[in-house]
Amino acid sequence: MSEPSKPQGRKFQLPEHLKVYQNVWVIVEQERGIVHSVSLELLGEARKLADKLGVEVGAVVLGAESPDLNRICGDAISYGADIVYKVTDPALTDYRTDPYCRVMTDVVNTHKPEIVLLGATTLGRDLAGAIATTLATGLTADCTELDIYADNRSLAATRPTFGGTLLCTIQTLAYRPQMATVRPRVMAMPERDDARTGRVIEIQPDLREEDIVTKVLNFIADREQNEAQLAFADIIVSAGKGLGKVENMKLVFDLAKVLGAEVGVTRPLVQAGWAGNDRQVGQTGKTVRPKLYIAAGISGAIQHRVGMEKSDLILAINTDPNATIFDFAHLGLVGDALKILPALTDAFGRRLSVNRMAG
Amino acid sequence: MVEKFDAIVIGAGPSGNAATYTLAKQGLKVLQLERGEYPGAKNVQGGIMYAHELEKIIPDFRDDCPTERHIIEQRVWLLGDDNYVGTNYRSEAFNSDKPNRYTIIRANIDKWWGEQIRKVGGLQICETTVTELIRDASGKVIGVRTDREGGEIHADVVIMADGVNALLAKRAGLQDEAAPENVALAVKEILFIDPELIQQRFGIKEDEGVVIEIMGKVTKGMVGTAFLYTNKESLTIGIGCLISDFKNGDCPPYRMLEELKKHPVIRPLIEGAEMKEYAAHMIPEGGYKAIPQLYGDGWMVVGDAAHFNNAAHREGSNLAMASGRMAAETVLELKAAGKGFTASNLAAYKKKLDDSFIMKDLKKYRELPGIMHGNKQFFGAYPDEITAAAHNWFTVDSVDKKTKEKAIMKAFVKRRSVMGLVGDAIKLVRAVR
Amino acid sequence: MHIVVCIKQVPDSAQIRIHPVTNTIMRQGVPAIINPFDLFSLEEALRLKDKVGARVTVLTMGPPMAETSLRKALSLGADDAVLLTDRKFAGSDTLATSYALTSAIQKLAEEDPVDIVFCGKQTVDGDTAQVGPGIATRLGFEQLTYITKIEDLDIASKEIVVQRRSEGGVQVLKTKLPCMITMLEGTNTIRFGKMDDLFRAARYELKTWSRDFTGAEEGRVGLKGSPTVVSKVFVPKPRAEKAKMIVADADTPDAMAAAAIDAIFAAQPKLAGDLLARAAAGL
């Protein structure tokens, strides 16, 4: 296994006209007044990059004027922004590619940030792909690690490739800004600091609704649906092929119920039809970062690993003491998950109910 | 509208490829149907290709055929529990301009075959399974039906090259189910390894290859053999036994392969390699006596589907290619003579087979499968005794050689009576005479 | 109506391995397939063709061997296929790739105006999800990514209504052609081609286009036209410490469960508090 060396990117000097590009930006993703947690994670990451570069952190908040939007601007500062670009227009109420792309292209061209970060979400990846094209610059998708090449201040964006079997570090040459989308839940959530101060720059673009072809007819929120909410779960109990047959999924759901946890699965289980792909954890599924991740009967293939290895605490249960998952789990239990899962369900149930009686 | 071809070939293995290519090259309108996702998707072969037969079909195949290494050394090992006795034959003569045997990786070869067939105008269609033969009122085969919408296709003659299972012939009532003692199940792995290591461990140069054929204790007394082949950047290791023995025994094939890989004389050769591919395959081992009806009105059967496999010499793909070529030549000759593809005219195919090495060799060894099957001592007791004998003989311990000879003979007789030994020898001699 | 479906031939990622010695991707023997995400878009295009009538052209940029993927798409029912291939394209990143593909789509549009471009949501080898938006932006098409359903398409008014997956729910969008659509995986199942289409695909004379032919500028494709470079490729490093193995008093599931819970709470004392608080609140 090769140890990743310290980033040694392509050596080149930035042309003068690109040196005016400064500051690290985060495009804050909000949908109907709710900020996506990845935007806050990115503010923390942008802070680290900006400190290395000796520049400021900018947060771009787009939407229609509203109290929610003002609250979000304040939050952005509390989580690490020095400047908030508050871009308001009724046409920005809901995300649509065309007006968002037009506005962001203008804002970037006017204020010239050297780095622009977005969450690797459906919004972030849709918007990033469009504005990287209008700006004709480099964009690295779905990053898991960001750093700065010290010798020429360029961004070292690391991402998994080939299904997570390899990592590669990508650098943008003499083009600015340097753009990257970052996987949710990969970067640590920064501490909120309400004492932080920053300035807000108000921008009112000249958008006319009649120029925008795409209209939003309706929005069906997931909260009203029955989708698994893996990405935000504090505890996840996950199942792999080791469970043997689909009937045994019940054991996982039983334990999850006692813990108030969500149930996750590996890719083969989704392919076998044991669970929907909203429950898949891994490279082609969700990246999760719960406080506790219980992996039952999961061997630890790289494809699964990249989706869960940043969990605070991983407990792996597997009959094979040589299973790969024990290489990166924190706690390991060699045994039959089919027997241990019910025992865990009972034991957790007892401990938690005892307390309720006592309390 | 139903498409009509001169000939339809079912299957894209060595026999089907040989038939399709030979027909297309002579300008016939040929359709080759393959059920796999791409040519070779369903094909598994240990991995030795014989040049002689391929040369007859594509004389200059060496120009671009993606072979692995040409074989310059053949080893035959009899394995004991932690030892082997064996013979090696290596010759500089195998390093000629036109080597005779190559190790191959089938996936690469099948892809190459596909290109050759397209070059001469053959139509190869994959992911399409033939579900039945279409016959006219007289019972003559006039085409096939596939699993696709609008799947009826007509042809003057249908050549079945659909492999050991010969599903189509069975469904059409042209063949019986193969008996379990006539089919071997082989499993193999391709292990990736640094070519430098291959060259060091086997004492060969970049393009040179070694083949090890293995018999003995690894098959747990079942009728079977194992092998280890050197490819360019990988090793192929495999083991196969008769289906009937797997049914009786309790050691599944993959475990047998694991044990082979851990055997103290094999392990050092494969150390540091990473498994890349695992495959299982059935091999027709019934020999001459298992050969089914080979032709009828409007149809012929070639290759594994016709049980053309010489178990004694580990030859299959060359018999397949030869039979495919002969079937195609029969079609070409009948067409040139303006004759129809009736059963009596297609008997010319059988005649070609009878006159060739295919039937001659299979006939020569016709008793061998039966003897092996009925006499498990060839795979259990004998390896023990032979390796013990060798150990005794080569251990320098001040015991005189005559005493050693006696002890060795005694050990054989103890496991298998004198009459038994003599009987085995006679049986074997007869079977291979 | 003219629909262009952009596809990519990729190595079957399920079968890719890293060479144990050289740490490089072993492509040898790995079958090449149509990027699985592209098949959802191709199927949707073919459904539109069945429903309202359309000419479906598949387009790919890649080496000559990508021909097999185009033929596969034809065998599923696509009408035409274009292979955009040129050594000059080698090393293109997503910006350069979307530029090159756009030049080919514009070439196609000269003959027959393009109403919808379908792209895969992302590829399984690159995983960027950037080429589709790049093409939409360059063509000035409405951009509809992560589409779960095409609710309605009115040929006369050129209006289309779609459902789009967003982070917190589903957007129902109404827009006008021309547009670029990427379909979300699992939204349909690719069909099984008809025998006639298989024959047609096998005999089809492929259109092979070079950079010169589409008029793409040399400086905007390949390495020259790519703002990004891969500066390093490496294998993920294993976590330094392996799992701490939990040892139970007895070899029973109950004893093991008890030991596991003790170990969890010892490692994460705060978690114990949270769980107990939750339980106490009767959640």
From TrEMBL, chain A:
<keyword id="KW-0813">Transport</keyword>
<protein>
    <submittedName>
        <fullName>Electron transfer flavoprotein subunit alpha</fullName>
    </submittedName>
</protein>
<comment type="similarity">
    <text>Belongs to the ETF alpha-subunit/FixB family.</text>
</comment>
<dbReference type="Pfam" id="PF00766">
    <property type="entry name" value="ETF_alpha"/>
</dbReference>
<dbReference type="GO" id="GO:0009055">
    <property type="term" value="F:electron transfer activity"/>
</dbReference>
<keyword id="KW-0274">FAD</keyword>
<keyword id="KW-0285">Flavoprotein</keyword>
<dbReference type="InterPro" id="IPR014731">
    <property type="entry name" value="ETF_asu_C"/>
</dbReference>
<dbReference type="GO" id="GO:0033539">
    <property type="term" value="P:fatty acid beta-oxidation using acyl-CoA dehydrogenase"/>
</dbReference>
<dbReference type="Pfam" id="PF01012">
    <property type="entry name" value="ETF"/>
</dbReference>
<dbReference type="InterPro" id="IPR014729">
    <property type="entry name" value="Rossmann-like_a/b/a_fold"/>
</dbReference>
<keyword id="KW-0249">Electron transport</keyword>
<feature type="binding site">
    <location>
        <begin position="297"/>
        <end position="304"/>
    </location>
    <ligand>
        <name>FAD</name>
    </ligand>
</feature>
<dbReference type="GO" id="GO:0050660">
    <property type="term" value="F:flavin adenine dinucleotide binding"/>
</dbReference>
<dbReference type="InterPro" id="IPR029035">
    <property type="entry name" value="DHS-like_NAD/FAD-binding_dom"/>
</dbReference>
From TrEMBL, chain B:
<dbReference type="GO" id="GO:0016491">
    <property type="term" value="F:oxidoreductase activity"/>
</dbReference>
<keyword id="KW-0560">Oxidoreductase</keyword>
<dbReference type="Pfam" id="PF01494">
    <property type="entry name" value="FAD_binding_3"/>
</dbReference>
<keyword id="KW-0274">FAD</keyword>
<comment type="function">
    <text>Part of an electron transfer system.</text>
</comment>
<dbReference type="GO" id="GO:0071949">
    <property type="term" value="F:FAD binding"/>
</dbReference>
<feature type="domain" description="FAD-binding">
    <location>
        <begin position="5"/>
        <end position="323"/>
    </location>
</feature>
<protein>
    <recommendedName>
        <fullName>Protein FixC</fullName>
    </recommendedName>
</protein>
<feature type="domain" description="FixC-like C-terminal">
    <location>
        <begin position="368"/>
        <end position="433"/>
    </location>
</feature>
<dbReference type="Pfam" id="PF26311">
    <property type="entry name" value="ETF-QO_FixC_C"/>
</dbReference>
<dbReference type="InterPro" id="IPR002938">
    <property type="entry name" value="FAD-bd"/>
</dbReference>
<dbReference type="InterPro" id="IPR039651">
    <property type="entry name" value="FixC-like"/>
</dbReference>
<dbReference type="InterPro" id="IPR036188">
    <property type="entry name" value="FAD/NAD-bd_sf"/>
</dbReference>
<dbReference type="InterPro" id="IPR059103">
    <property type="entry name" value="FixC-like_C"/>
</dbReference>
<keyword id="KW-0285">Flavoprotein</keyword>
Automatic annotation (TrEMBL), chain C:
<protein>
    <recommendedName>
        <fullName>Protein FixA</fullName>
    </recommendedName>
</protein>
<dbReference type="InterPro" id="IPR012255">
    <property type="entry name" value="ETF_b"/>
</dbReference>
<feature type="domain" description="Electron transfer flavoprotein alpha/beta-subunit N-terminal">
    <location>
        <begin position="22"/>
        <end position="218"/>
    </location>
</feature>
<dbReference type="InterPro" id="IPR000049">
    <property type="entry name" value="ET-Flavoprotein_bsu_CS"/>
</dbReference>
<keyword id="KW-0813">Transport</keyword>
<dbReference type="Pfam" id="PF01012">
    <property type="entry name" value="ETF"/>
</dbReference>
<keyword id="KW-0249">Electron transport</keyword>
<comment type="subunit">
    <text>FixA and FixB form a heterodimer.</text>
</comment>
<dbReference type="InterPro" id="IPR014729">
    <property type="entry name" value="Rossmann-like_a/b/a_fold"/>
</dbReference>
<dbReference type="GO" id="GO:0009055">
    <property type="term" value="F:electron transfer activity"/>
</dbReference>
<comment type="similarity">
    <text>Belongs to the ETF beta-subunit/FixA family.</text>
</comment>
<dbReference type="InterPro" id="IPR033948">
    <property type="entry name" value="ETF_beta_N"/>
</dbReference>
<dbReference type="InterPro" id="IPR014730">
    <property type="entry name" value="ETF_a/b_N"/>
</dbReference>
<comment type="function">
    <text>May play a role in a redox process involved in nitrogen fixation.</text>
</comment>
